[in-house]
Design a protein that fits this description.
Elements: H1 9-17, H2 21-34, H3 44-49, H4 51-56, H5 60-80, H6 87-117, H7 122-132, H8 137-154
Helix pairs in contact: 1-6, 1-7, 5-6, 6-7
Length: 155
């Protein structure tokens, strides 16, 4: 049996991102043409939602890493008695400025994984990308409930 060529990357990206692909397409093209180097762009969703935007876009690893770094810095601040009151703002600014690039890199890792798992099998590769991409609203809702509950317990 002859192996089919891989699904073209833009089609795989459309399958992964879902209905809102065209909102990201311009940025993805810029990242592709610059080899993923960062450049300034600002995402209001990344700024106002921060890690919740990352979870919504299924960037679990990236969101966990940023959360872990901020938690570590916060704990250092408690231990060494320095202020961390602007930490959340800095985190949101970072996600607003670099979030789309992180999303592009996350998407490309998943596309590469689909290519590796389903070598030349386009239909299963696209189905896998659709399943592992898109958005996860329920995780964001759960996260917001946990944050609200934490604030209520603290009051």
């Amino acid at each position: 049996q002859t192996q089919q060529p891989e699904v073209p990357r833009p089609i795989a990206a459309m399958a992964y991102v879902g209905d809102r692909y065209h909102a990201f397409e311009e940025y993805f093209d810029l990242y592709r043409s610059t080899g993923g180097r960062a450049f300034f762009n600002f995402s209001w969703a990344g700024f106002f939602l921060g890690i919740f935007w990352m979870l919504y876009r299924k960037m679990y690893l990236e969101g966990f890493i940023i959360f872990a770094i901020c938690t570590f810095i916060y704990l250092l601040g408690l231990y060494f008695d320095f202020s961390t009151e602007n930490l959340s703002l800095l985190q949101c600014i970072y996600i607003a400025v670099d979030g789309r690039r992180l999303y592009w890199k996350s998407m490309n890792r998943r596309i590469d994984r689909a290519y590796q798992m389903y070598q030349g099998q386009n239909s299963p590769a696209l189905a896998w990308l659709k399943n592992h991409g898109g958005t996860n609203l329920w995780l964001v809702i759960l996260g917001l409930i946990i944050v609200i509950a934490a604030f209520m317990i603290d009051i």
